[in-house]
Amino acid sequence: MISSEKVLEIFRQTGALLEGHFILTSGYHSPHYFQCAKVLQYPTYNTLFAKEIAEHFKNLDINVVISPAVGGIVLATEIGRLLNARTIFAERENNIMTLRRGFDIYENENVLVCEDVVTTGGSVFEIIEIVKEKKAKIVGVGYIIDRSGGKVDFGVKQVSLAKVEIEKYPPDNLPDWLSKIPVTKPGSRNLKS
Questions:
Q1: In the structure, what pLDDT confidence band is assigned to residue 187 with cuts at 50, 70 and 90?
Q2: Cα–chain-centroid distance for residue 119?
């Protein structure tokens, strides 16, 4: 299994671990941001991470791999290919995570949820609710970076390749040093579809 240190080294090498002042998808502010698209653009790394995650779920008869749009799509597609499973994604419509584009999940299917980075797990929890509404079975959650340092619990088998606890602050309680840095919001939460 790849070590957390090696994963973080790859992120640094590809410029995917950013430093500055960022608003995370969760709404928290942080001096660090994992821009997974910058590392996943390289097929070698996408396949490496996908293989590491898929290995943990290969014997669970996965029917569907699902991710939230946009961040998890590239990784989930490769994991789905490796597990020979249908791969779909959910996206926000009127600020509600939903299945669109003709995607569906069928009753009793075994579903693996994939994401690139988890901080609070909000998007993954929304996906889990969609799967439950469809009366399918969540068999696990796989993701590259666990920013919670292992604190988020999805109630199913979960695998992350790197657990890190990077400081994050609520918007109404920023340290002075961070508030002096110009803020950027690099995530995909507010993209128009």
A1: low
A2: 9
Bridge-partner residues for 113, per DSSP? 66, 141
Structure tokens that stand for 63 in this block: 């029917």
Per-residue tokens: 116: 């690139």
pLDDT in tens, 55-103: 999 999 999 999 999 889 999 999 999 999 999 999 999 989 999 999 9
Pairing state of beta strands 17-23 and 158-163? unpaired
Peptide bond into 70 cis (omega under 30): yes
In the chain, the domains with their CATH numbers are 4-179 (3.40.50.2020)
Name residue, tokens 């009753």.
107
Ranking 13-22, 47-56, 75-84 by mean pLDDT, the lowest is 13-22
